[in-house]
Amino acid sequence: MMLIKCLSAAAFTIVASEVWANCTLLRATGGFPPQGSQPSPAQSLNEAFPTSLPGGVPIWRQVDFKTNPHEYADVVKTIAKNSIHLQAGKIQIDQNRWWSAPFMNYTNNGREHFNGLTKERSPSGSDLAPNSPANYQVWAVGWYNDYGAVQLGKIWGDRCQPDEGSARLFPENTVSVKMLFTNADPTAVSYLQGSPEVTAAIDPTLEEVQLRSA
After folding, report:
1. Mean of the pLDDT values across residues 76-96?
2. Residue 19: how many CA atoms within 13 Å on its side-chain side?
3. pLDDT for 213
4. Mean pLDDT (whole number) for 10-29
5. Helix (H, G, I), strand (E, B) or coil at 209
6. Full residue range of the structural domain in which residue 134 is found
7. Total of domains in the chain
8. How many CB atoms lie under 10 A from the CB of residue 146?
9. Within 84-117, where are the H helices?
10. What is the pTM of this model?
């Protein structure tokens, strides 16, 4: 368990009552903390999917993305910033606005306990900054808005038998937001200076493995 810094937060728009089946699939918040750590389940996950699409026109649709792409993206990012917060090492979401995908918690390679992060591709040297070394880790968690969440609910109506036929297209106005975190040293990746931090049960570093095996 360690603190890792926020690498980036990206938002983009894709144009174009909880029921658990009788199977062994764990709930998203059912993962155990690392041995010796106090339980602190993720507050960033939400699988209570809505069943109907919202009415009205989303606020970002009032901006023409063809002529004002930056303003269009800024509207979406503002919504995310106002409804996703970091507090005391925990990611907290507005559960009336954001939902997370199931199945990412399955097996030991699934979501970590504290913030529901999953491991991303490990960056190669110079991926994060011109002179950044390799062997750092990147972890992330993402969400869908109500439009996308309705589709997720159709796919996972039966939590043990997802409906692949419903997994083709998200409805128009679906928004997905993703936050990425890394254990990279801010002295090697300067833009991480002062970045928010969260607690996460990431993979042991080489130094930790060597220490444990000593």
Report:
1. 96
2. 11
3. 35
4. 44
5. helix
6. 2-213
7. 1
8. 19
9. none
10. 0.84
